[in-house]
Amino acid sequence: MTALLRIASATVRFGDRAALDGVDLDVAAHETVCVLGPSGSGKSTLLRAVAGLQPLDGGRVLLDGADQAGTPPHRRGVGLMFQDHQLFPQRDVGGNVAFGPRMHKVPRARRDRRVAELLDLVGLPGAAGREVGTLSGGEQQRVALARALAPEPRLLMLDEPLGQLDRSLRERLVVELRQLFGQLGTTVLAVTHDQGEAFALADRVVVMRDGRIAQTGTPLAVWQQPASEFVARFLGFDTITDGAVSGGVAVTDWGKLPVPDGTPEGPVRLLVRPPGVLLGPADEGLLCEVRARTFRGGRVAVILGVVGAERGPALEAECTLRDAPAEGERIGVTFDPAEIVVLDR
Ligand SMILES: Nc1ncnc2c1ncn2[C@@H]1O[C@H](COP(=O)(O)OP(=O)(O)OP(=O)(O)O)[C@@H](O)[C@H]1O
């Protein structure tokens, strides 16, 4: 199957620094791919290169198999929605949404029908006559989305689409967006620095670092098996330590940890995901003391120090509020081998 979008060895340099450094990425039709990464990792440059707003210094961008070199942005059939969605303030909602179809000389009656349909879809039925200045931030975002969808782009690209909205609104909109893209069969390439947003929206996530792809996979696969320390820390996992593997176990600051079958002997870097840190009575397993508790939604992150190794790295467990031990309490820790990940160095 041909990818709808193929990015092959894409390279963009600013001076002697590569903002994109040989990036390869395919996006299939109807797929939603979210590009994640810290500030400056090249996410926006990647979108701009696909849109034709940023020339490549090397490599190619293909849409439906056709090399886009020399094709100007407005002929690529891609829709773009930026963080500062920049609605036209002098036009009403309908005028904003109809902008693309008008440029493509779509007849008025069809245009009006399309505007009404799209406003229904984004949850703003009947809003065509409203002034843009009277809309809330979330409503403006929806209008920007309807405007980007109006010309029926073969690829929709979103740059921090929900960036400026408050968290609860973002969480709601991201669910709506996912439903909407599923319903329309839209192919989406989105950029965000917010992992929660990416994981909720994407069929596949791509984590970038310094202009390169650090990891790509389904949200679940990346979450459960971060490939490297960089990806693990970017996702917020800090329970990482060195170990020495021998005979199927790793000797670490946290005692002997089971490692996955096939892990080579010798030094390793290990991540213990919080669900793999199991709490029990103080006389069983590794003796730890609760240093702190942090509330995260309905769960509690329990930060543990190993008794007798106070300077060693902290462990983090995850509990329900009811099961969370109190600060200062001593408990015994055992480890679930399924949650131990060997990281690439
Ligand atoms: N026009 C430009 N001129 C010079 N350097 C640039 C230009 N555009 C981007 N860069 C540099 O390229 C690198 C990648 O930038 P890019 O905007 O793609 O990152 P990003 O991952 O989207 O970051 P953010 O999350 O902060 O938007 C950065 O180091 C940036 O400073």
Topology, element by element:
Layout: E1 5-14, E2 17-27, E3 32-36, H1 43-51, E4 58-63, E5 66-67, E6 78-81, H2 93-97, H3 99-103, H4 108-121, H5 137-149, E7 155-159, H6 167-184, E8 188-192, H7 195-201, E9 204-209, E10 212-217, H8 219-224, H9 229-234, E11 240-246, E12 249-252, E13 255-258, E14 266-272, E15 277-280, E16 286-296, E17 299-306, E18 315-320, E19 330-335, E20 340-343
Parallel strand pairs: 3-8, 3-9, 6-7, 7-8
Antiparallel strand pairs: 1-2, 1-4, 4-5, 9-10, 11-12, 11-14, 12-13, 14-20, 15-19, 16-17, 16-19, 17-18
Helix pairs in contact: 4-5
Adenosine-5'-triphosphate binds at residues 14, 19, 37, 39-45, 193.
Structural features, described:
With 345 residues, this protein is α+β, with helices and mostly antiparallel strands. The chain folds into two domains: 5-234, Rossmann fold, CATH 3.40.50.300; 240-343, OB fold (Dihydrolipoamide Acetyltransferase, E2P) (Beta Barrel). Helix content is 24%, strand content 35%. It has a six-stranded mixed β-sheet with strand order 6-7-8-3-9-10, with helices on both faces. A hairpin with an 8-residue loop joins β17 (299-306) and β18. It is elongated. The two termini are 34 Å apart. The model has no long low-confidence stretch (mean pLDDT 91). The structure holds adenosine-5'-triphosphate. Adenosine-5'-triphosphate (ATP) is lined by residues 14, 19, 37, 39-45, 193. Adenosine-5'-triphosphate binds next to α1.
